[in-house]
Write a structure and sequence with these properties.
64 residues, mainly alpha, 4 helices, 84% helix, elongated
Length: 64
């Protein structure tokens, strides 16, 4: 099975560009994510981290 896939992929012209494009997208995504994590405001992080607790409290109040 692997020989079939390898032989088929070798016959496609310019197939070597797809792994490079995938690597570039992967690298850019995590670079931007890393940048966002270090530049996000502490207030925003605190507000977002408390959302699950607010939802849990709301559901408990509704049950009572």
């Amino acid at each position: 099975m692997l020989k079939f896939v390898k032989g088929y992929m070798e016959s496609i012209e310019g197939v070597a560009t797809y792994p490079m494009i995938s690597l570039l997208i992967f690298f850019l995504f995590f670079t931007i994510l890393f940048w966002w994590v270090f530049t996000a405001s502490k207030e925003h992080i605190k507000e977002v981290s408390e959302i699950p607790l607010e939802i849990e409290n709301q559901t408990k109040e509704e049950l009572l």
